Amino acid sequence: MSLYRLGLNMEFLLAVSTALLLAGSVSSQDMSHEDLLAQLQACPKECRCPPSFPSAVYCDNKGLKRIPVIPPNTLYLYLQNNLIEVLSADALRNATQLKWLNLNHNKITSEGVEEDALKAMPNLVYLYMEDNLLTSVPSALPQSLEQLRLSRNKISKIPLGVFSNMEHLTLLDLQGNKLQDEDVTEASLKGLNNLVQINLAKNQLSNMPLGLPSTTTQIFLDGNNIDKIPASYFKGLPKVAFLRLNHNKLVNGGLPKNIFNLSSILDLQLSHNMLTEVPTIPAGLEHLHLDHNQIKYLNGSDICPLPAEALDDYFDEKGPRLRYLRLDGNEIKPPIPRDLMVCFRLLRAIVI
């Protein structure tokens, strides 16, 4: 063996030994010395596998057109910012322990997602496929998934049954696609029994999406064409805390009087719509965004969630909780009405 080759091997072994000494438990898993050596030696030549973090394989920003064969002890795989067109089952056949897969900014089409390529990863928790060319939500998703991010594709279809048994999925991001009302239904979302956040911003919705799970806490619908909310819409959504409807076509006639009277809601964003009046504010609301509408006046008594005689008991925990109010971009002129401050005594910032 040449001195040069011997030097390289000694450097490799020294890096591995140092990593073991420093990390103790490598990458949150009990990887044996033999597995560690095999993992680093099997690192694809196009990628980078740090000895200090051997369960991560970095193949991002390499101009790759295909996925290289991935070592079996990989937990985190970074393939973003490449030219990959096919999600290959063969390349991922050994990646059964994978928990995190980032495929953002590639050229993957729905036809390019090979059958069982994703299902073969039973431990996958986070899947990022943003900024690709998908036209449909991928099928055969791992049931272990907790976050699925598919924003800025060309998705116009959610296949029936695609979310069956997806009991662990808490975040679904479909922002910036081509979904219409008939694509987002109770049937297409069936199976998402523990969903917390759904992002349907910048699609082609004209109505509030139907079939959202009762567990949903955060709903993002910015940048659609929604002009009304049905009176009973939130009846099956008792946990909604954050609701964003910025950049839609909402008018006061499309908002039933007590539509936002939800005990759970904390943050309500209705900026860049066509509202002419401030809607009724629930007592527990903390942040309200109404900037860039067509509101002409502000009457604190009219929008106060409590009658005047109840304000003496303000410091009771049932008192109005509003802390932030944004009204700029309307036709309201200063000063701030005194009755507004009398009602919302916790207000710390108001923008007019």
**Overall form:** elongated
The SSE order reads HHEEEEEEEEEEEHEHE
Strand order of the largest sheet: 1-2-3-4-5-6-7-8-9-10-11-12-13
Structural class: little secondary structure
Radius of gyration: 26 Å
| Quantity of strands, as a count | 13
> How much beta, percentage-wise?
5-15%
Total helices: the number is 4
Described by strand count, sense and barrel closure, the largest sheet is: 13 strands, parallel
The unreliable regions are 1-28
Terminal Cα separation, in Å?
77 Å
Keywords: Disulfide bond, Extracellular matrix, Glycoprotein, Leucine-rich repeat, Repeat, Secreted, Signal
Family: Belongs to the small leucine-rich proteoglycan (SLRP) family. SLRP class II subfamily.
Pfam family, one: LRR_8
Signal peptide: 1-28
Structural features, described:
- By secondary structure, this protein is low in regular secondary structure.
- It has four helices and 13 strands.
- It has a 13-stranded parallel beta sheet with strand order 1-2-3-4-5-6-7-8-9-10-11-12-13, with no helix packed on it.
- Strand 12, helix 4 and strand 13 form a beta-alpha-beta unit.
- The N terminus is likely disordered.
Summarize the structure.
This is Keratocan. Residues 1-28 form the signal peptide. The chain is mostly loops.
Layout of strands and helices, then pairs:
Elements: H1 3-23, H2 33-41, E1 56-58, E2 76-78, E3 100-102, E4 126-128, E5 147-149, E6 171-173, E7 197-199, E8 218-220, E9 242-244, E10 267-269, E11 287-289, H3 300-303, E12 324-326, H4 338-343, E13 349-351
Parallel strand pairs: 1-2, 2-3, 3-4, 4-5, 5-6, 6-7, 7-8, 8-9, 9-10, 10-11, 11-12, 12-13
